[in-house]
Amino acid sequence: MGYTIAQKIIKNHLVCGEMVVGKEIGLKIDQTLTQDATGTMAYLQFEAMGIDRVKTELSVAYIDHNTLQAGFENADDHRYIQTVTKKHGIRFSRPGNGICHQVHLERFSKPGKTLIGSDSHTPTAGGIGMLGMGAGGLDVAVAMGGGTYYITMPKMIRVNLVGKLSDYVGAKDVILEVLRMLSVKGGVGAIVEYGGEGVKTLSVPQRATITNMGAELGATTSIFPSDEVTKAFLEAEGRGEDYIELSSDEDAVFDAVYTVDLSALKPLAACPHSPDNVKAVSELSGMKINQVCIGSCTNSSMQDMLTVASMLKGKTVHPDVSLSISPGSKQVYTMLAECGALADLINAGARILECACGPCIGMGFSPQSAGVSLRTFNRNFLARSGTADAQVYLVSPETAAASAIAGVFTDPTTLGVAPKVEMPTTFKINDNLIEMPVSADKMDEVTVERGPNIKPIPVGKAPDENLSCELILKVGDDITTDHIMPAGTKVLPYRSNVPKLSEFCFTVCDKDFPERAKKKGGGVILGGVNYGQGSSREHAALVPLYLGIKAVVAKSFARIHVANLINFGIVPMTLKNPDDYDKFNEGDALEIQGFANAVKGENEATLVNKTNGATATLVLTLSARQREMLTAGGCLNYTKNK
Fold first, then answer.
1. For 557, phi and psi rounded to 5 degrees?
2. For 490-534, how does the pLDDT look when each residue is reduced to its tens digit (9 = 90+)?
3. Which residues belong to the active site?
4. Phi-psi region for residue 362, left (φ > 0), alpha (ψ -120 to 50) or beta?
5. What is the pTM of this model?
6. Bridge partners of 269?
Protein backbone atom coordinates (compact mmCIF):
# COMPACT_ATOMS: atom_id res chain seq x y z
CA MET A 1 0.00 0.00 0.00
CA GLY A 2 1.36 3.40 -1.01
CA TYR A 3 1.55 6.61 0.98
CA THR A 4 -0.23 9.94 0.77
CA ILE A 5 1.84 13.13 0.69
CA ALA A 6 1.27 13.74 4.39
CA GLN A 7 2.08 10.14 5.30
CA LYS A 8 5.39 10.41 3.45
CA ILE A 9 6.36 13.52 5.41
CA ILE A 10 5.18 12.00 8.70
CA LYS A 11 7.14 8.81 8.00
CA ASN A 12 10.32 10.84 7.40
CA HIS A 13 9.85 12.79 10.64
CA LEU A 14 8.51 10.08 12.94
CA VAL A 15 10.25 10.07 16.33
CA CYS A 16 7.93 7.72 18.17
CA GLY A 17 4.64 5.90 17.83
CA GLU A 18 3.08 4.02 14.93
CA MET A 19 1.32 5.49 11.92
CA VAL A 20 -2.02 4.03 12.97
CA VAL A 21 -5.05 6.31 12.81
CA GLY A 22 -6.10 7.38 16.29
CA LYS A 23 -2.76 6.56 17.93
CA GLU A 24 -0.42 9.21 19.31
CA ILE A 25 2.71 9.89 17.27
CA GLY A 26 5.69 12.16 17.88
CA LEU A 27 7.23 14.23 15.10
CA LYS A 28 10.53 16.00 14.58
CA ILE A 29 9.85 19.63 13.71
CA ASP A 30 12.05 21.40 11.15
CA GLN A 31 10.67 24.95 11.45
CA THR A 32 8.57 27.01 13.85
CA LEU A 33 6.87 30.37 13.64
CA THR A 34 5.19 32.63 16.16
CA GLN A 35 3.29 35.88 15.93
CA ASP A 36 3.14 38.60 18.53
CA ALA A 37 -0.32 37.81 19.92
CA THR A 38 0.93 34.37 20.96
CA GLY A 39 4.68 34.82 20.76
CA THR A 40 5.29 36.66 24.01
CA MET A 41 3.92 33.75 26.02
CA ALA A 42 5.74 31.19 23.85
CA TYR A 43 9.11 32.85 24.48
CA LEU A 44 8.42 33.25 28.19
CA GLN A 45 7.78 29.51 28.23
CA PHE A 46 10.93 28.83 26.21
CA GLU A 47 12.97 30.84 28.71
CA ALA A 48 11.36 28.94 31.58
CA MET A 49 12.71 25.71 30.12
CA GLY A 50 16.28 26.95 30.54
CA ILE A 51 17.43 26.08 26.99
CA ASP A 52 20.04 28.43 25.55
CA ARG A 53 19.48 28.10 21.79
CA VAL A 54 16.75 26.83 19.49
CA LYS A 55 17.39 23.38 18.00
CA THR A 56 15.22 23.67 14.88
CA GLU A 57 16.49 24.26 11.33
CA LEU A 58 14.68 27.60 11.35
CA SER A 59 12.52 29.53 13.80
CA VAL A 60 10.97 32.91 13.00
CA ALA A 61 9.12 35.42 15.19
CA TYR A 62 6.70 37.67 13.30
CA ILE A 63 5.18 40.97 14.42
CA ASP A 64 1.85 41.19 12.59
CA HIS A 65 -1.08 41.02 15.04
CA ASN A 66 -0.65 43.62 17.79
CA THR A 67 0.56 46.44 15.55
CA LEU A 68 -2.05 49.01 16.60
CA GLN A 69 -0.07 50.66 19.37
CA ALA A 70 -2.62 52.64 21.39
CA GLY A 71 -0.51 52.35 24.53
CA PHE A 72 2.88 51.10 25.65
CA GLU A 73 1.84 47.45 26.00
CA ASN A 74 2.23 46.25 22.40
CA ALA A 75 5.45 48.16 21.83
CA ASP A 76 6.92 46.71 25.03
CA ASP A 77 5.99 43.19 24.00
CA HIS A 78 7.55 43.72 20.57
CA ARG A 79 10.79 44.86 22.19
CA TYR A 80 10.76 41.78 24.42
CA ILE A 81 10.28 39.47 21.42
CA GLN A 82 12.97 41.29 19.46
CA THR A 83 15.55 40.90 22.22
CA VAL A 84 14.68 37.38 23.38
CA THR A 85 14.80 36.04 19.81
CA LYS A 86 18.10 37.78 19.12
CA LYS A 87 19.58 36.07 22.16
CA HIS A 88 18.26 32.55 21.56
CA GLY A 89 18.80 32.01 17.83
CA ILE A 90 15.44 33.02 16.29
CA ARG A 91 14.92 35.30 13.30
CA PHE A 92 12.79 38.40 13.91
CA SER A 93 10.42 39.76 11.27
CA ARG A 94 9.93 43.41 12.11
CA PRO A 95 6.58 45.25 12.11
CA GLY A 96 5.77 46.20 8.53
CA ASN A 97 7.44 43.17 6.98
CA GLY A 98 4.14 41.39 6.67
CA ILE A 99 1.72 38.74 7.84
CA CYS A 100 3.49 35.65 9.15
CA HIS A 101 1.90 33.11 6.80
CA GLN A 102 2.32 35.22 3.66
CA VAL A 103 5.96 36.03 4.45
CA HIS A 104 6.74 32.45 5.48
CA LEU A 105 5.23 31.16 2.23
CA GLU A 106 7.36 33.60 0.24
CA ARG A 107 10.67 33.26 2.04
CA PHE A 108 10.92 30.10 4.18
CA SER A 109 8.36 27.33 3.49
CA LYS A 110 9.85 24.18 1.97
CA PRO A 111 8.14 21.15 0.41
CA GLY A 112 8.55 17.99 2.47
CA LYS A 113 9.46 19.79 5.71
CA THR A 114 7.51 20.09 8.97
CA LEU A 115 6.37 23.39 10.48
CA ILE A 116 4.36 24.22 13.57
CA GLY A 117 3.25 27.72 14.43
CA SER A 118 1.45 29.35 17.32
CA ASP A 119 -1.29 30.35 14.92
CA SER A 120 -4.06 28.11 13.62
CA HIS A 121 -3.52 29.18 10.00
CA THR A 122 -0.01 27.72 9.82
CA PRO A 123 -1.42 25.13 7.31
CA THR A 124 -1.06 27.95 4.75
CA ALA A 125 2.36 26.38 4.09
CA GLY A 126 0.56 23.31 2.78
CA GLY A 127 0.10 25.25 -0.45
CA ILE A 128 3.78 24.64 -1.13
CA GLY A 129 3.78 20.97 -0.07
CA MET A 130 4.87 21.53 3.54
CA LEU A 131 3.30 19.83 6.56
CA GLY A 132 2.32 22.97 8.48
CA MET A 133 0.25 22.68 11.65
CA GLY A 134 -1.17 25.14 14.13
CA ALA A 135 -0.23 24.53 17.77
CA GLY A 136 -0.30 26.15 21.17
CA GLY A 137 2.61 28.39 22.07
CA LEU A 138 3.88 25.93 24.66
CA ASP A 139 4.07 23.16 22.06
CA VAL A 140 6.02 25.54 19.82
CA ALA A 141 8.38 26.39 22.69
CA VAL A 142 9.04 22.69 23.29
CA ALA A 143 9.74 22.16 19.57
CA MET A 144 12.13 25.12 19.52
CA GLY A 145 14.00 23.43 22.34
CA GLY A 146 14.40 20.28 20.24
CA GLY A 147 11.42 18.47 21.77
CA THR A 148 9.02 16.22 19.93
CA TYR A 149 5.64 17.50 18.73
CA TYR A 150 2.81 15.07 19.44
CA ILE A 151 -0.40 14.63 17.49
CA THR A 152 -2.96 11.90 17.04
CA MET A 153 -2.24 10.13 13.76
CA PRO A 154 -4.85 11.60 11.41
CA LYS A 155 -6.99 9.87 8.84
CA MET A 156 -6.56 11.00 5.24
CA ILE A 157 -9.16 12.85 3.16
CA ARG A 158 -8.69 13.42 -0.55
CA VAL A 159 -10.32 16.26 -2.47
CA ASN A 160 -9.97 15.79 -6.23
CA LEU A 161 -10.06 18.99 -8.24
CA VAL A 162 -11.19 18.76 -11.87
CA GLY A 163 -11.67 21.43 -14.52
CA LYS A 164 -10.51 25.05 -14.33
CA LEU A 165 -11.83 28.14 -12.55
CA SER A 166 -13.95 30.51 -14.63
CA ASP A 167 -13.47 34.27 -14.81
CA TYR A 168 -14.15 36.01 -11.49
CA VAL A 169 -14.17 32.71 -9.53
CA GLY A 170 -11.29 32.43 -7.07
CA ALA A 171 -9.50 29.99 -4.81
CA LYS A 172 -11.58 31.34 -1.92
CA ASP A 173 -14.65 29.93 -3.65
CA VAL A 174 -12.98 26.52 -3.76
CA ILE A 175 -12.45 26.31 -0.01
CA LEU A 176 -15.90 27.78 0.70
CA GLU A 177 -17.34 24.96 -1.42
CA VAL A 178 -15.34 22.40 0.58
CA LEU A 179 -16.61 24.00 3.81
CA ARG A 180 -20.16 23.83 2.45
CA MET A 181 -19.66 20.12 1.75
CA LEU A 182 -17.87 19.10 4.94
CA SER A 183 -18.73 21.76 7.59
CA VAL A 184 -16.47 23.19 10.31
CA LYS A 185 -16.32 19.73 11.88
CA GLY A 186 -15.72 17.76 8.67
CA GLY A 187 -11.94 17.78 8.88
CA VAL A 188 -11.56 16.94 12.57
CA GLY A 189 -8.95 14.22 13.04
CA ALA A 190 -7.94 14.36 9.38
CA ILE A 191 -5.44 15.76 6.92
CA VAL A 192 -6.97 17.04 3.70
CA GLU A 193 -4.94 16.42 0.54
CA TYR A 194 -5.79 18.07 -2.76
CA GLY A 195 -5.15 16.26 -6.04
CA GLY A 196 -6.47 15.75 -9.55
CA GLU A 197 -5.82 17.50 -12.85
CA GLY A 198 -7.32 20.75 -11.57
CA VAL A 199 -4.40 21.22 -9.17
CA LYS A 200 -2.13 22.15 -12.09
CA THR A 201 -4.34 25.15 -12.89
CA LEU A 202 -3.85 26.71 -9.45
CA SER A 203 -0.90 28.89 -8.47
CA VAL A 204 0.91 28.46 -5.13
CA PRO A 205 -0.85 31.52 -3.62
CA GLN A 206 -4.21 30.08 -4.71
CA ARG A 207 -3.32 26.74 -3.16
CA ALA A 208 -2.25 28.53 0.02
CA THR A 209 -5.64 30.27 0.24
CA ILE A 210 -7.28 26.84 0.21
CA THR A 211 -4.97 25.23 2.79
CA ASN A 212 -5.16 28.34 4.98
CA MET A 213 -8.91 27.91 5.48
CA GLY A 214 -8.53 24.18 6.03
CA ALA A 215 -8.21 25.34 9.63
CA GLU A 216 -11.92 26.19 9.45
CA LEU A 217 -12.65 22.54 8.59
CA GLY A 218 -11.09 21.54 11.91
CA ALA A 219 -8.44 19.60 9.97
CA THR A 220 -5.01 18.82 11.40
CA THR A 221 -3.67 20.40 8.21
CA SER A 222 -4.20 20.53 4.45
CA ILE A 223 -1.63 19.94 1.72
CA PHE A 224 -1.05 20.17 -2.03
CA PRO A 225 1.52 18.29 -4.13
CA SER A 226 4.87 19.92 -4.85
CA ASP A 227 5.09 20.07 -8.64
CA GLU A 228 6.23 22.24 -11.53
CA VAL A 229 3.96 25.06 -10.32
CA THR A 230 5.68 24.89 -6.93
CA LYS A 231 9.08 24.89 -8.61
CA ALA A 232 8.24 28.01 -10.63
CA PHE A 233 7.07 29.83 -7.50
CA LEU A 234 10.23 28.96 -5.56
CA GLU A 235 12.41 30.02 -8.49
CA ALA A 236 10.53 33.33 -8.69
CA GLU A 237 11.35 33.81 -4.99
CA GLY A 238 15.02 33.00 -5.62
CA ARG A 239 14.70 29.71 -3.74
CA GLY A 240 14.81 27.14 -6.52
CA GLU A 241 17.16 24.97 -4.47
CA ASP A 242 14.35 24.35 -1.94
CA TYR A 243 12.24 22.49 -4.50
CA ILE A 244 11.55 18.78 -4.33
CA GLU A 245 8.85 16.88 -6.20
CA LEU A 246 6.27 15.45 -3.85
CA SER A 247 3.04 13.61 -4.61
CA SER A 248 0.98 10.76 -3.23
CA ASP A 249 1.51 7.22 -4.52
CA GLU A 250 -0.99 5.90 -7.05
CA ASP A 251 -2.03 3.16 -4.64
CA ALA A 252 -2.33 5.47 -1.60
CA VAL A 253 -5.49 4.81 0.39
CA PHE A 254 -7.78 7.58 1.62
CA ASP A 255 -10.48 7.34 4.26
CA ALA A 256 -12.79 9.56 2.22
CA VAL A 257 -12.68 11.05 -1.27
CA TYR A 258 -14.56 14.09 -2.57
CA THR A 259 -14.58 15.87 -5.92
CA VAL A 260 -14.88 19.58 -6.72
CA ASP A 261 -15.45 20.63 -10.33
CA LEU A 262 -13.64 23.96 -10.59
CA SER A 263 -15.32 24.81 -13.88
CA ALA A 264 -18.77 24.49 -12.29
CA LEU A 265 -18.02 26.71 -9.28
CA LYS A 266 -19.77 30.05 -8.84
CA PRO A 267 -18.84 32.86 -6.42
CA LEU A 268 -19.74 31.91 -2.85
CA ALA A 269 -20.07 33.67 0.52
CA ALA A 270 -19.93 32.40 4.09
CA CYS A 271 -22.80 34.09 5.90
CA PRO A 272 -22.87 35.12 9.58
CA HIS A 273 -21.58 33.73 11.87
CA SER A 274 -19.76 30.62 10.65
CA PRO A 275 -17.37 29.84 7.77
CA ASP A 276 -19.53 26.87 6.73
CA ASN A 277 -22.79 28.85 6.44
CA VAL A 278 -22.22 29.10 2.70
CA LYS A 279 -24.53 30.47 0.02
CA ALA A 280 -24.10 31.47 -3.61
CA VAL A 281 -23.37 35.18 -4.02
CA SER A 282 -26.18 35.27 -6.59
CA GLU A 283 -28.63 34.52 -3.76
CA LEU A 284 -27.41 37.60 -1.88
CA SER A 285 -27.21 39.98 -4.85
CA GLY A 286 -28.61 43.43 -4.18
CA MET A 287 -28.11 43.35 -0.39
CA LYS A 288 -26.82 46.74 0.75
CA ILE A 289 -23.31 46.64 2.23
CA ASN A 290 -21.39 49.11 4.38
CA GLN A 291 -17.83 47.88 4.43
CA VAL A 292 -15.36 45.77 2.45
CA CYS A 293 -12.03 44.50 3.82
CA ILE A 294 -9.50 42.88 1.50
CA GLY A 295 -6.39 41.15 2.87
CA SER A 296 -5.52 38.77 5.73
CA CYS A 297 -3.31 35.69 5.55
CA THR A 298 -5.98 34.12 3.32
CA ASN A 299 -6.12 36.63 0.48
CA SER A 300 -3.30 39.16 0.49
CA SER A 301 -0.88 37.76 -2.09
CA MET A 302 0.41 39.63 -5.13
CA GLN A 303 -2.07 37.71 -7.26
CA ASP A 304 -4.99 38.76 -5.06
CA MET A 305 -3.89 42.39 -4.96
CA LEU A 306 -3.36 42.64 -8.74
CA THR A 307 -6.77 41.07 -9.34
CA VAL A 308 -8.45 43.66 -7.13
CA ALA A 309 -6.44 46.53 -8.62
CA SER A 310 -7.44 45.51 -12.15
CA MET A 311 -11.13 45.54 -11.15
CA LEU A 312 -10.90 48.91 -9.36
CA LYS A 313 -8.81 50.69 -12.00
CA GLY A 314 -10.60 53.77 -13.27
CA LYS A 315 -13.56 53.24 -10.95
CA THR A 316 -14.62 54.70 -7.59
CA VAL A 317 -15.70 52.83 -4.48
CA HIS A 318 -19.41 53.40 -3.76
CA PRO A 319 -19.93 56.39 -1.42
CA ASP A 320 -21.76 54.22 1.14
CA VAL A 321 -18.89 51.74 1.35
CA SER A 322 -15.64 51.97 3.29
CA LEU A 323 -12.93 49.82 1.65
CA SER A 324 -9.71 48.73 3.35
CA ILE A 325 -6.86 46.86 1.68
CA SER A 326 -4.03 45.17 3.58
CA PRO A 327 -1.18 43.85 1.40
CA GLY A 328 0.20 40.63 2.86
CA SER A 329 3.89 41.50 2.87
CA LYS A 330 6.44 44.21 2.21
CA GLN A 331 7.30 42.31 -0.95
CA VAL A 332 3.73 42.57 -2.21
CA TYR A 333 3.36 46.21 -1.11
CA THR A 334 6.59 47.27 -2.79
CA MET A 335 5.79 45.53 -6.06
CA LEU A 336 2.29 47.05 -6.10
CA ALA A 337 3.87 50.48 -5.75
CA GLU A 338 6.45 49.87 -8.46
CA CYS A 339 3.99 48.52 -11.06
CA GLY A 340 1.40 51.26 -10.51
CA ALA A 341 -1.33 49.01 -9.12
CA LEU A 342 -1.13 50.72 -5.73
CA ALA A 343 -2.08 54.02 -7.39
CA ASP A 344 -5.11 52.34 -8.97
CA LEU A 345 -6.26 51.15 -5.53
CA ILE A 346 -5.73 54.55 -3.91
CA ASN A 347 -7.42 56.45 -6.75
CA ALA A 348 -10.47 54.19 -6.44
CA GLY A 349 -10.86 55.27 -2.82
CA ALA A 350 -9.38 52.30 -1.00
CA ARG A 351 -7.86 52.95 2.41
CA ILE A 352 -4.48 51.22 2.40
CA LEU A 353 -3.59 49.64 5.73
CA GLU A 354 -0.20 48.33 6.82
CA CYS A 355 1.05 44.83 5.98
CA ALA A 356 -0.51 43.16 9.02
CA CYS A 357 -3.51 41.13 10.17
CA GLY A 358 -5.39 44.28 11.10
CA PRO A 359 -9.18 43.99 10.84
CA CYS A 360 -9.06 40.18 10.62
CA ILE A 361 -7.98 39.95 14.27
CA GLY A 362 -10.22 42.87 15.31
CA MET A 363 -7.37 45.39 15.25
CA GLY A 364 -9.21 48.38 13.87
CA PHE A 365 -11.65 48.90 10.99
CA SER A 366 -14.64 47.62 12.97
CA PRO A 367 -17.92 47.94 11.02
CA GLN A 368 -20.66 50.39 11.91
CA SER A 369 -23.51 49.29 14.22
CA ALA A 370 -25.36 46.38 12.59
CA GLY A 371 -23.17 46.96 9.53
CA VAL A 372 -22.79 44.47 6.68
CA SER A 373 -19.10 43.81 6.10
CA LEU A 374 -17.68 41.73 3.24
CA ARG A 375 -14.25 40.37 4.11
CA THR A 376 -11.72 38.19 2.29
CA PHE A 377 -10.73 36.77 5.68
CA ASN A 378 -11.07 33.28 7.13
CA ARG A 379 -13.40 33.76 10.10
CA ASN A 380 -16.68 35.56 10.65
CA PHE A 381 -17.34 34.54 14.25
CA LEU A 382 -19.73 36.65 16.28
CA ALA A 383 -18.15 39.95 17.43
CA ARG A 384 -14.67 39.04 16.05
CA SER A 385 -14.78 42.21 13.94
CA GLY A 386 -15.06 44.35 17.07
CA THR A 387 -18.73 45.21 16.48
CA ALA A 388 -21.07 42.92 18.40
CA ASP A 389 -24.02 43.18 16.00
CA ALA A 390 -22.06 43.31 12.72
CA GLN A 391 -23.01 40.93 9.92
CA VAL A 392 -19.75 39.64 8.47
CA TYR A 393 -19.60 37.68 5.20
CA LEU A 394 -16.50 35.90 3.90
CA VAL A 395 -15.96 36.31 0.16
CA SER A 396 -13.30 36.18 -2.53
CA PRO A 397 -11.30 39.26 -3.58
CA GLU A 398 -13.25 39.23 -6.85
CA THR A 399 -16.64 39.41 -5.09
CA ALA A 400 -15.28 41.96 -2.62
CA ALA A 401 -14.06 44.32 -5.34
CA ALA A 402 -17.23 44.06 -7.43
CA SER A 403 -19.42 44.72 -4.38
CA ALA A 404 -17.29 47.65 -3.17
CA ILE A 405 -17.92 49.44 -6.45
CA ALA A 406 -21.64 48.65 -6.62
CA GLY A 407 -22.45 49.27 -2.94
CA VAL A 408 -24.46 46.05 -2.82
CA PHE A 409 -23.63 42.35 -2.83
CA THR A 410 -22.61 41.68 -6.44
CA ASP A 411 -21.88 38.47 -8.31
CA PRO A 412 -18.73 39.38 -10.26
CA THR A 413 -19.50 36.84 -13.01
CA THR A 414 -22.23 39.23 -14.18
CA LEU A 415 -19.53 41.75 -15.15
CA GLY A 416 -18.49 40.00 -18.35
CA VAL A 417 -14.89 39.15 -19.22
CA ALA A 418 -12.43 39.61 -16.37
CA PRO A 419 -9.46 41.97 -16.86
CA LYS A 420 -6.29 40.01 -17.64
CA VAL A 421 -3.80 40.01 -14.79
CA GLU A 422 -0.14 39.55 -15.71
CA MET A 423 1.76 37.97 -12.85
CA PRO A 424 5.49 38.80 -12.52
CA THR A 425 7.88 35.95 -13.26
CA THR A 426 10.24 37.06 -10.50
CA PHE A 427 9.51 38.64 -7.14
CA LYS A 428 11.40 41.50 -5.52
CA ILE A 429 13.67 40.00 -2.87
CA ASN A 430 14.60 42.21 0.06
CA ASP A 431 14.82 40.62 3.50
CA ASN A 432 16.14 43.74 5.22
CA LEU A 433 13.32 43.68 7.79
CA ILE A 434 14.19 40.17 8.96
CA GLU A 435 16.77 40.46 11.72
CA MET A 436 19.22 37.63 12.30
CA PRO A 437 20.02 36.48 15.85
CA VAL A 438 23.49 36.83 17.33
CA SER A 439 25.84 33.85 17.28
CA ALA A 440 25.87 31.50 20.26
CA ASP A 441 29.16 32.91 21.56
CA LYS A 442 27.66 36.42 21.77
CA MET A 443 24.28 35.62 23.31
CA ASP A 444 25.40 36.72 26.77
CA GLU A 445 25.88 40.21 25.36
CA VAL A 446 22.14 40.51 24.67
CA THR A 447 19.89 41.88 27.40
CA VAL A 448 16.29 40.69 27.20
CA GLU A 449 13.99 43.66 27.83
CA ARG A 450 10.76 43.09 29.76
CA GLY A 451 8.08 45.75 30.11
CA PRO A 452 5.74 46.11 33.10
CA ASN A 453 2.88 44.48 31.16
CA ILE A 454 4.59 41.07 31.27
CA LYS A 455 3.33 39.03 34.22
CA PRO A 456 4.21 35.51 35.48
CA ILE A 457 2.68 32.45 33.80
CA PRO A 458 0.00 30.60 35.83
CA VAL A 459 0.97 26.99 36.54
CA GLY A 460 -1.46 24.11 36.98
CA LYS A 461 -1.72 21.63 39.86
CA ALA A 462 -2.22 17.89 40.15
CA PRO A 463 -5.89 16.79 39.98
CA ASP A 464 -7.88 16.17 43.16
CA GLU A 465 -9.02 12.61 43.90
CA ASN A 466 -12.67 13.69 43.59
CA LEU A 467 -13.50 17.11 42.21
CA SER A 468 -16.30 19.03 43.97
CA CYS A 469 -17.25 22.34 42.39
CA GLU A 470 -19.96 24.33 40.66
CA LEU A 471 -21.00 24.25 37.01
CA ILE A 472 -19.72 27.75 36.51
CA LEU A 473 -20.70 28.12 32.83
CA LYS A 474 -22.78 26.15 30.32
CA VAL A 475 -22.34 26.91 26.60
CA GLY A 476 -23.55 25.37 23.34
CA ASP A 477 -22.03 23.86 20.18
CA ASP A 478 -19.13 25.28 18.15
CA ILE A 479 -17.82 27.53 20.91
CA THR A 480 -14.73 29.18 19.46
CA THR A 481 -11.57 30.45 21.09
CA ASP A 482 -12.91 33.92 20.19
CA HIS A 483 -15.82 33.23 22.55
CA ILE A 484 -13.46 32.00 25.29
CA MET A 485 -10.72 34.60 24.92
CA PRO A 486 -11.67 37.44 22.56
CA ALA A 487 -9.18 39.36 20.44
CA GLY A 488 -9.38 42.99 19.30
CA THR A 489 -7.88 46.32 20.24
CA LYS A 490 -8.99 46.25 23.89
CA VAL A 491 -7.85 42.71 24.63
CA LEU A 492 -4.77 41.81 22.57
CA PRO A 493 -2.39 44.23 24.34
CA TYR A 494 -2.73 42.09 27.49
CA ARG A 495 -1.67 38.76 26.00
CA SER A 496 1.36 38.68 28.33
CA ASN A 497 -0.68 39.88 31.33
CA VAL A 498 -2.98 37.01 32.29
CA PRO A 499 -4.53 38.70 35.37
CA LYS A 500 -5.70 41.64 33.25
CA LEU A 501 -6.64 39.36 30.35
CA SER A 502 -8.91 37.35 32.64
CA GLU A 503 -11.32 40.31 32.78
CA PHE A 504 -12.37 39.51 29.20
CA CYS A 505 -12.69 35.72 29.44
CA PHE A 506 -16.00 34.41 28.02
CA THR A 507 -17.50 37.91 28.08
CA VAL A 508 -18.86 37.35 24.54
CA CYS A 509 -21.11 34.65 26.09
CA ASP A 510 -21.56 36.01 29.60
CA LYS A 511 -20.23 39.42 30.64
CA ASP A 512 -20.36 38.39 34.32
CA PHE A 513 -18.28 35.22 33.94
CA PRO A 514 -14.85 36.57 35.01
CA GLU A 515 -16.16 38.10 38.23
CA ARG A 516 -18.29 35.05 39.01
CA ALA A 517 -15.38 32.66 38.44
CA LYS A 518 -13.14 34.67 40.75
CA LYS A 519 -15.83 34.84 43.43
CA LYS A 520 -16.58 31.10 43.24
CA GLY A 521 -12.91 30.07 43.00
CA GLY A 522 -13.43 28.50 39.58
CA GLY A 523 -15.35 25.36 38.74
CA VAL A 524 -16.26 23.26 35.70
CA ILE A 525 -17.37 24.43 32.24
CA LEU A 526 -19.87 22.39 30.19
CA GLY A 527 -19.82 22.70 26.41
CA GLY A 528 -21.40 21.12 23.34
CA VAL A 529 -19.93 19.78 20.10
CA ASN A 530 -16.58 21.03 18.74
CA TYR A 531 -15.70 23.04 21.85
CA GLY A 532 -12.67 25.29 21.28
CA GLN A 533 -12.69 25.53 17.49
CA GLY A 534 -10.84 28.34 15.75
CA SER A 535 -7.61 30.01 16.77
CA SER A 536 -4.66 28.18 18.35
CA ARG A 537 -4.48 30.82 21.11
CA GLU A 538 -3.44 29.01 24.26
CA HIS A 539 -4.79 31.90 26.31
CA ALA A 540 -8.19 30.21 25.88
CA ALA A 541 -6.80 27.56 28.27
CA LEU A 542 -4.32 29.64 30.24
CA VAL A 543 -6.83 32.27 31.36
CA PRO A 544 -9.49 29.76 32.51
CA LEU A 545 -6.69 28.08 34.50
CA TYR A 546 -5.98 31.41 36.20
CA LEU A 547 -9.71 31.73 36.96
CA GLY A 548 -9.72 28.36 38.69
CA ILE A 549 -11.22 26.10 36.00
CA LYS A 550 -10.22 22.52 36.83
CA ALA A 551 -12.04 20.65 34.05
CA VAL A 552 -14.02 21.22 30.87
CA VAL A 553 -16.74 18.72 30.00
CA ALA A 554 -18.01 18.74 26.40
CA LYS A 555 -19.65 16.58 23.77
CA SER A 556 -16.46 16.88 21.70
CA PHE A 557 -13.36 19.10 21.44
CA ALA A 558 -11.34 20.79 18.70
CA ARG A 559 -7.82 19.37 18.24
CA ILE A 560 -5.58 22.31 19.17
CA HIS A 561 -7.69 23.48 22.08
CA VAL A 562 -7.81 20.08 23.80
CA ALA A 563 -4.00 19.94 23.52
CA ASN A 564 -3.77 23.41 25.08
CA LEU A 565 -6.07 22.42 27.96
CA ILE A 566 -3.84 19.44 28.74
CA ASN A 567 -0.71 21.57 28.42
CA PHE A 568 -1.96 23.82 31.22
CA GLY A 569 -3.38 21.14 33.48
CA ILE A 570 -7.11 21.51 32.75
CA VAL A 571 -8.74 18.10 32.31
CA PRO A 572 -10.84 17.78 29.10
CA MET A 573 -13.58 15.16 29.52
CA THR A 574 -16.31 14.12 27.11
CA LEU A 575 -19.84 12.95 27.83
CA LYS A 576 -20.17 9.25 27.03
CA ASN A 577 -23.81 9.92 26.22
CA PRO A 578 -24.14 13.38 24.61
CA ASP A 579 -27.80 13.53 25.64
CA ASP A 580 -26.66 13.80 29.28
CA TYR A 581 -25.76 17.41 28.47
CA ASP A 582 -29.40 18.35 29.25
CA LYS A 583 -29.18 16.97 32.82
CA PHE A 584 -26.96 19.83 33.99
CA ASN A 585 -27.54 23.54 34.36
CA GLU A 586 -25.38 26.51 35.18
CA GLY A 587 -25.07 26.92 38.96
CA ASP A 588 -25.57 23.21 39.75
CA ALA A 589 -23.33 21.73 42.44
CA LEU A 590 -21.20 18.98 40.90
CA GLU A 591 -18.85 16.22 41.92
CA ILE A 592 -16.63 14.28 39.54
CA GLN A 593 -16.06 10.99 41.33
CA GLY A 594 -12.83 9.21 40.40
CA PHE A 595 -11.39 12.38 38.88
CA ALA A 596 -7.71 11.65 39.61
CA ASN A 597 -8.06 7.96 38.77
CA ALA A 598 -9.55 8.83 35.38
CA VAL A 599 -6.49 10.97 34.68
CA LYS A 600 -4.13 8.22 35.80
CA GLY A 601 -5.67 5.62 33.50
CA GLU A 602 -9.16 4.51 34.52
CA ASN A 603 -10.51 6.37 31.43
CA GLU A 604 -13.93 6.99 32.96
CA ALA A 605 -15.37 8.98 35.88
CA THR A 606 -18.85 9.74 37.15
CA LEU A 607 -20.29 13.23 37.04
CA VAL A 608 -22.84 13.69 39.83
CA ASN A 609 -25.29 16.58 39.87
CA LYS A 610 -25.71 17.16 43.60
CA THR A 611 -28.47 19.69 42.91
CA ASN A 612 -30.91 17.36 41.11
CA GLY A 613 -29.37 13.89 41.60
CA ALA A 614 -28.61 13.24 37.91
CA THR A 615 -25.46 11.41 36.86
CA ALA A 616 -23.41 11.02 33.68
CA THR A 617 -20.39 8.99 32.64
CA LEU A 618 -17.38 11.02 31.57
CA VAL A 619 -14.70 9.64 29.26
CA LEU A 620 -11.05 10.63 29.21
CA THR A 621 -9.12 9.12 26.29
CA LEU A 622 -5.48 10.16 26.56
CA SER A 623 -2.01 8.90 25.77
CA ALA A 624 0.31 7.85 28.60
CA ARG A 625 2.32 11.06 28.02
CA GLN A 626 -0.77 13.26 28.32
CA ARG A 627 -1.76 11.49 31.55
CA GLU A 628 1.68 12.17 32.98
CA MET A 629 1.33 15.84 32.02
CA LEU A 630 -2.05 16.23 33.70
CA THR A 631 -0.83 14.37 36.78
CA ALA A 632 2.07 16.83 36.96
CA GLY A 633 -0.28 19.79 36.57
CA GLY A 634 0.60 20.59 32.97
CA CYS A 635 3.39 20.60 30.42
CA LEU A 636 5.69 23.10 32.15
CA ASN A 637 5.82 21.01 35.32
CA TYR A 638 6.11 17.83 33.26
CA THR A 639 8.99 19.24 31.20
CA LYS A 640 10.86 20.44 34.27
CA ASN A 641 10.44 17.02 35.87
CA LYS A 642 11.87 15.40 32.76
1. -125, 155
2. 898 999 999 999 999 999 999 999 999 999 999 999 999 999 999
3. 64-65, 119, 379, 535, 537
4. left
5. 0.93
6. 279
